[in-house]
Write a structure and sequence with these properties.
The protein has helices at about 1-35, 240-260, and strands at about 40-45, 50, 55-65, 70-80, 85-90, 100-105, 110-115, 130-140, 140-150, 155, 165-170, 170-175. By secondary structure, the chain is an alpha+beta fold. Among the domains are: about 1-25 and about 245-260; about 40-175, Immunoglobulin-like (Sandwich), CATH 2.60.40. The strands form two sheets. Strands 2, 4, 6, 7, 9, 10 and 12 form a seven-stranded mixed β-sheet that branches. Helix 1 runs antiparallel to helix 2 (about 240-260). The longest helix has about 30 residues, at about 1-35. The chain starts with a helix and ends with a helix. Residues about 15-35, about 180-195, about 200-245 and about 255-260 have low confidence and may be disordered.
């Protein structure tokens, strides 16, 4: 009878040891594929050449994810509406295929709101690339920043529980110069006719009226719709309490066999 108890005790110790080793290995594996610190950066890149009043140009929004696997971004960009006018914003090649919300462009307040996210089932992205592209018109001479609103700009990633993984936001500055050839021309003096015995009247040219340039119509402000929040991406992993509970059940079964036999 003693031999049976010893065998049962040894079996229980081996089972408990296996559970502990398995739990350590599983926790180590979950740690490798689990949360990473926020390391995503967004930056706005402006044109390299001089921009003149009335000219249209393109500015890009670039992303670097670092250790994160990004599945979606929410952008809120600000600019000086007296200097710049945003015409459009479209997704680029980084998050493909992309679902979008917006854009909502307000050239009175100087804001652009745009959401780019991957559809359900698509693999999240890691690395660097071009996230979006903006078409902009130089409205008047001056300087304006194109910058991210830190309170309204975020990126969500896999295994991060829906937290914002943005670490750094970098703006750009756009300088608009006055259009070339816009100086006023100085009229030449009219020649004085010489007096003759029979003066011949000279015909006077009718002045040509310069049409006034039409006033540019100011766009009416666009009301910002209520945008649904980006849903959190659930974490995956094996539950340690489940493994321990399973092991305790096996121990009770082994113990019962030892008592009866």
């Amino acid at each position: 009878m003693k031999t049976k108890y010893v065998v049962a005790l040894i079996s229980i110790l081996i089972l408990v040891g296996g559970i502990v080793v398995g739990a350590v290995l599983i926790r180590s594996q979950v740690g490798k594929s689990g949360k990473a610190a926020p390391s995503t950066s967004l930056s706005i890149t402006g044109p390299l050449q001089t921009i003149y009043q009335g000219q249209e140009f393109t500015s890009t929004i670039d992303i670097t994810t670092g250790e994160n696997y990004v599945a979606g971004t929410e952008l809120l960009i600000r600019f000086d509406p007296s200097v710049l006018e945003v015409i459009s914003i479209t997704p680029s090649s980084f998050l493909v295929p992309a679902d979008t919300v917006g854009p909502v462009i307000d050239n009175q307040a100087g804001t652009v709101y745009f959401v780019i996210l991957l559809p359900p089932g698509a693999d999240p992205k890691q690395g660097s690339g071009e996230l979006a592209s903006m078409k902009i018109k130089a409205k008047s001479p001056g300087t304006s920043q194109l910058s991210f609103d830190s309170g309204g700009t975020l990126a969500v990633a896999l295994h991060e529980g829906g937290q914002n993984v943005i670490q750094n936001l970098s703006p750009t500055t756009i300088t608009v110069a006055s259009s070339t050839g816009g100086g006023d021309a100085t009229p030449s003096p009219s020649p004085t006719p010489e007096a003759t015995d029979t003066p011949t009247p000279s015909a006077t040219a009718s002045p040509t009226s310069t049409p006034a340039s039409p006033a540019s119509a100011s766009p009416s402000p666009t009301s910002s719709p209520t945008i649904p929040p980006i849903s959190e991406i659930p974490d995956t992993g094996v539950s340690l309490p489940t493994i321990v509970g399973f092991g305790v059940g096996l121990m009770l079964i082994v113990g019962s066999f030892a008592l009866f036999y």
